[in-house]
Write a structure and sequence with these properties.
475 residues; alpha+beta; Phosphorylase Kinase, domain 1; Transferase(Phosphotransferase), domain 1; 6-stranded antiparallel β-sheet; two-stranded antiparallel sheet; 16 helices; 8 strands; 48% helix; transferase; NEK_Ser/Thr_kinase_NIMA; serine/threonine-protein kinase
Length: 475
């Protein structure tokens, strides 16, 4: 489709009404943002097609400079959507950075219902074509090139995200096909989500139902788009530059969404070092709060060392806010850990108190049993004078033991005490008169009686008289 414009286009351009274009449509003619017209350019070739329009390489007639424009058909747009398109274009024109594709102006052809965005031309194609070429040649992209392009893309995103006093601009469509290489093989970030503005929610739905290789987990969960979503897409681009394929894939759409939500991917080839690995790992964090910001990325030594002197990161309010948020998150984690430790210590203290209570109960039981044993021993000792009915001379003991014969007093002492207690108990409990208990002598097993031993005192208990006898005496 290369070549010059048709005569009908030139005739419309010559009769164009110049001045700022209105997004509301209306009468015929061509309007532009700075007075240029379609007749000032000639088409050279088509260099790309996308969901938002056709990109062509054109030549500016007044100086022969090669530039590009994007043709957008707004015939089916409502007035609100047209105004949104113009607002987005004016916002993009305000972005001025060496790593962002320069948007010079725009031309509105009301008769053809087309908008032309005049942009900077990048002769070395985009990263998608570069990745395809390396995959075909089976060669990895040098790590130094990847880190250099990452630093340039980070600078471009910082220009969009960290606009002091102005609303942040979100790219919303960061992918290799929108990262262009200029004549010096430096990265130029382009195509700032015009497809999203053109189609609104329908664009999100079509992307979601297609192959969302570069969509963040929060987008997949329909949680909205933030600056951290651009950082996720940057991580996907970095991984694809290293591995020549996207990090998340699946045979079905559901499998792809599950892979994105998990954040799991194959490790990088061994030819790449730890700096690139850690950057990609921090960019592909499924949790947006744990994902690094553009300021944090620019602070990495492997990125900061590749920045030009005038682009070195400086302390900013956003950077301070990110640091405060990181510290608050760390403090929250420490507080939760402290509370869990406190609960664990409380549980241990309760268990220790329970063990001490059981030990105290055992000690009380042991003390009670010991007191009972002492009481029984004291009672037995109180009975000892009454039951020690024999006195054995020490000399006799020695003689007896020397002869190998046990003393009769020793052998019969316990038996005499038992007989005495039994007789006393029987006498106290008997209802009939009990005769005095006489102990004629204590003998041993052989029937001998110790002559030195005196008989024990006799115990007498009065015999109660029958009640009938008492009554007769009273009468």
């Amino acid at each position: 489709m290369g070549g010059r414009h048709s005569s009908s286009t030139r005739s419309r351009s010559s009769n164009a009404s110049q001045g700022p274009a209105s997004g509301s449509g209306g009468g015929g003619g061509v309007g532009s943002g700075n007075g240029s017209a379609l007749a000032d350019y000639e088409v050279v070739e088509v260099i790309g097609r996308g969901s938002s329009g056709v990109v062509k390489k054109v030549r500016r007639l007044r100086d022969g400079a090669s530039i590009a424009w994007k043709e957008i058909d707004f015939g089916d747009m409502c007035d609100v959507r047209k105004q949104m398109l113009l607002t987005e274009i004016n916002l993009i024109i305000q972005l001025r950075h060496c790593n962002i594709v320069r948007c010079y102006n725009y031309i509105i052809d009301r008769e053809a219902k087309r908008a032309y965005i005049i942009m900077e031309y990048c002769p070395n194609g985009d990263l998608a074509a570069l990745i395809k070429q390396h995959r075909r040649d089976k060669k990895y992209i040098p790590e130094d090139d990847i880190l250099r392009w990452l630093s340039q893309l980070a600078l471009a995103l910082r220009c969009c995200h960290c606009r002091q006093g102005v609303k942040a601009v979100l790219h919303r469509d960061l992918k290799p096909a929108n990262c262009f290489l200029d004549a010096g093989r430096s990265i130029k970030l382009g195509d700032f989500g015009l497809a999203r503005v053109l189609a609104g929610d329908a664009s999100f739905a079509s992307t979601y139902l297609g192959t969302p290789y570069y969509m963040s987990p929060e987008q997949v969960k329909l949680c909205g788009y933030t600056e951290k979503s651009d950082m996720w897409a940057l991580g996907v681009v970095a991984y694809e530059l290293a591995c020549l394929r996207p990090p998340f894939n699946g045979s079905t759409h559901d499998q792809l969404v599950a892979a994105i939500l998990s954040g799991s991917y194959r490790p990088l080839p061994d030819v790449y070092g730890e700096p690139l690995r850690s950057i990609i790992a921090d960019l592909l964090q499924p949790d947006p709060d744990r994902r690094i910001s553009v300021e944090q990325l620019l602070d990495r030594p492997s990125i900061r060392d590749r920045l030009p002197p005038d682009e070195l990161p400086e302390p900013s309010l956003r950077r301070w806010a990110d640091e405060q948020r990181r510290l608050a998150d760390s403090l929250g984690r420490l507080r939760r850990l402290l509370k869990s430790r406190e609960r664990e210590l409380d549980a241990r203290a309760a268990a220790a108190d329970e063990r001490e209570a059981r030990l105290a109960k055992r000690e009380a039981e042991v003390a009670r049993r010991e007191a009972r044993a002492r009481l029984l021993n004291d009672r037995l000792r109180g009975l000892a004078p009454l039951t020690d009915l024999s006195i054995v001379d020490s000399s006799d003991k020695e003689n007896n033991f020397s002869l190998g014969v046990a003393s009769c007093a020793d052998s019969n002492s316990t038996a005499s005490a038992a007989a005495f207690v039994s007789a006393s108990y029987a006498a106290s409990t008997s209802a009939s008169p009990v005769a005095p208990v006489h102990d004629e002598g204590v003998g041993d097993a052989c029937g001998c009686v110790d002559e030195k031993e005196e008989p024990p005192p006799q115990l007498h208990r009065p015999v109660p008289r029958p009640r009938r006898t008492l009554q007769r005496e009273a009468n």
